[in-house]
Each structure stands twice: as structure tokens, then as C-alpha cells.
């Protein structure tokens, strides 16, 4: 069963097309992440689902109900915004219960829902405090709790961790994942942070220009990006790209003729193409054994990162990066032998940029 379905959705602001003929099905109980750079339309799509923006064309269904023109309060959703949007004059308990009181819910049920949300989010000792006495992470938990008390089918998160420091983001990311495991509600989460997307999502929808470029599991997007844009967007540092030509099990690039017989082409592939290789898939040392593509390269720049080391070099006349162990002893101007396994690489058509 689909929890949320979007059909042929368009949203225009005058002549500017923000969302274009967008279709999306979100499974019941799924954690779906909308990922993309600023201006790609991810928050706009979330606001359309929430009912905060009127669509130009298309339909939105939640639990098989057509909610396209319903008010936000009628859609059965709970939303957590980037800003905490807490009432500063109220206690945490008051913030959690405010919406329920306005809905004239019985006092006993309000107390039960507030206590349940506080227990799940581990904010029970904070209930009598006001937002000014809370840390950023505690305020965001209260904002999540305010959505949680509504007991809705679908939760919407609009970059809820972007205002927090790196350590706090990592801690709350784990808490949100645990929250989804406990509740099993459908969650739609907007972020520009690929680490959040990869660690939280059951599936990721990568967006660009108001369209979904690829919708798949984190593993599928990482290992088999559907196009060059997705390949470049996912991964830090991003994928290496080498321009060249395909012919008869070989790839010619920068004067090098590479043996790519291990790549799983579904049919004959010839013509101009781009080879993509992730820095962590470049082999060195003992891992070189049996690899069909090997070369000697000169180290140009070394970036120690603790757990690993990023090495910059030139391969086939083009800039190229690869990872080594953090304890590796490597310096500028060293010569290192590297290898590439074609089975772990990606090829993209030069013209369409689609995966081959």
C-alpha cells in the first residue's frame, strides 16, 4: 500500500517552473529522503504534500485520500521545520499540548500523548522548562515531539538538523532513525546533506530542477548511479570522471587504452563515454593483484583525514583522486601504483549522461 502518492505534479511561480510533471509513490512505513542542492525543489515538494503551497496541476494522495486541495490540518500529517518555531512563553509541556488543546481533545488523552512523546524522545525531565533554557538539540526534540503527539500517519521533516553543530547532528540523526524504528510511520525527510540521506533513508529521491533524477535505495544510488549528475552528487569526495571512447571491451582516454572487459554492459557499447571511478574503489598495494587496469602515478597532493588519506594525482592526463589507509606513509612527489576494477566502475553516455 502506498502511504503517499503524487501524480503529474506541477508547480509554477509565474513563468518559473519549480516542479515539473513529478510522479512519486511512497510506501507505507517507509523513510524516504528528498535529497538535492539548494533550489532543486525538495522543500517545495514537501510543502505541497503538507498543503502549505497550492499546486498548479496534478494530484496528491495520502492513504488513498485525494488531499490536493485539503487544508494542512485535514491531511493527517505532522511537520517538523528547520526552525524550531516553539512558543517561548510556554513550557515544553505547553508547546507539546498546545495543538491538542486547540482541537479540544480530552485532558486525559492530552496528558497521555504528551507523556508518550516525552518518553520516546527522552525529554521527560525538560517538560517544565521553557525553550530559552534548552539547548539546540533539546529544542529540536521538542519540535519533533509536537508533531509526534498528533499521532498522524505521515511525518514531514524539512531539514530539521541543519541549524545544529556536526556532533549534535550526528547524535540526533541516530535518534530520528530509532524513532522511525519504534513508530514505523511513513517519514519524508528533506536534506541537502548526503550523509543524512545515506544513513537514514530506506530510499532516496535525488532531485534537480524540480524533477527526480533517481529514486532508489542508498546502496543502489551509491553503487549504480543512474546518471552522471547522481554519480557526481553522491560521495565525498565525488567520483572521478575520465572522458574517452568505448570500443570492443576497451576504453581509450588521454592516450591510455584501458581493458574494461569486467564491466557489466547489457549489450554492445561504443562511442563517446565517461568513466566514473570512486576514490575509495581505487586499489593500491596488495589489492592490485589481478586487476586489468593498473598504472604508475605521481603524488601531487596529500590530505590526511585521520581514518583515511586522500591522494591527488593525474591519471590519463586528467585530475584523479584516490583514498589510502589513514596510516599510509605517502608524500608529495612519491610514485604509487594504482589499480581499477572495471566491475566497480560506472560508465555514462557522453551525450545523455545516462548510465550504460
TrEMBL record:
One GO molecular-function entry: ATP hydrolysis activity
**Which keywords annotate this record?**
ATP-binding, Nucleotide-binding, Transport
Protein family according to the UniProt entry: Belongs to the ABC transporter superfamily.
Has UniProt tagged this entry with the keyword ATP-binding? yes
Q: State the organism named in the record.
A: Aliiruegeria haliotis
Tell me the CDD domains matching this sequence: ABC_MalK_N (cd03301)
Q: What is this protein called?
A: Carbohydrate ABC transporter ATP-binding protein (CUT1 family)
Q: Which NCBIfam families match?
A: PRK11650.1
Amino acid at each position: 500500500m502506498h502511504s503517499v502518492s503524487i501524480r503529474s505534479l506541477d508547480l509554477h511561480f509565474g513563468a518559473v517552473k519549480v516542479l515539473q510533471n513529478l510522479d512519486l509513490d511512497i510506501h507505507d512505513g517507509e523513510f524516504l529522503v528528498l535529497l538535492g542542492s539548494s533550489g532543486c525543489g525538495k522543500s517545495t515538494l514537501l510543502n505541497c504534500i503538507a498543503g502549505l503551497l497550492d499546486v498548479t496541476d496534478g494530484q496528491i494522495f495520502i492513504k488513498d485520500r485525494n488531499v490536493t486541495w485539503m487544508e494542512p490540518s485535514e491531511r493527517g500529517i505532522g511537520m517538523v521545520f528547520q526552525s524550531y518555531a516553539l512558543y517561548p512563553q510556554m513550557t515544553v509541556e505547553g508547546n507539546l499540548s498546545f495543538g491538542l488543546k486547540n482541537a479540544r481533545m480530552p485532558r486525559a488523552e492530552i496528558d497521555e500523548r504528551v507523556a508518550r512523546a516525552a518518553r520516546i524522545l527522552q525529554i521527560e525531565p525538560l517538560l517544565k522548562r521553557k525553550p530559552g533554557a534548552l539547548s539546540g538539540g533539546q529544542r529540536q526534540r521538542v519540535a519533533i515531539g509536537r508533531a509526534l503527539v498528533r499521532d498522524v500517519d505521515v511525518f514531514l521533516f524539512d531539514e530539521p538538523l541543519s541549524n545544529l553543530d556536526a556532533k549534535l547532528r550526528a547524535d540526533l540523526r541516530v535518534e530520528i532513525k530509532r524513532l522511525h524504528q519504534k513508530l514505523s510511520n511513513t517519514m519524508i525527510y528533506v536534506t541537502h546533506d548526503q550523509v543524512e540521506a545515506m544513513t537514514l533513508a530506506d530510499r532516496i529521491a535525488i532531485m534537480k530542477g524540480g524533477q527526480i533524477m533517481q529514486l532508489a535505495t542508498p546502496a543502489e544510488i551509491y553503487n549504480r548511479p543512474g546518471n552522471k549528475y547522481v554519480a557526481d552528487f553522491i560521495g565525498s569526495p565525488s567520483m572521478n570522471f575520465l572522458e574517452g571512447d568505448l570500443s570492443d571491451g576497451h576504453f581509450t582516454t588521454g592516450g591510455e587504452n584501458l581493458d574494461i572487459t569486467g564491466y557489466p554492459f547489457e549489450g554492445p557499447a561504443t562511442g563517446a563515454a565517461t568513466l566514473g571511478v570512486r576514490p575509495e574503489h581505487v586499489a593500491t598495494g596488495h589489492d592490485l593483484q589481478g586487476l586489468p587496469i593498473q598504472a604508475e602515478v605521481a603524488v601531487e597532493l596529500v590530505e590526511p583525514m585521520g581514518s583515511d588519506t586522500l591522494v591527488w594525482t593525474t591519471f590519463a592526463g586528467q585530475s584523479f583522486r584516490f583514498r589510502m589507509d589513514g596510516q599510509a606513509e605517502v608524500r608529495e612527489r612519491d610514485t604509487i601504483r594504482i589499480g581499477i576494477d572495471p566491475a566497480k566502475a560506472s560508465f555514462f553516455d557522453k551525450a545523455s549522461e545516462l548510465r550504460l
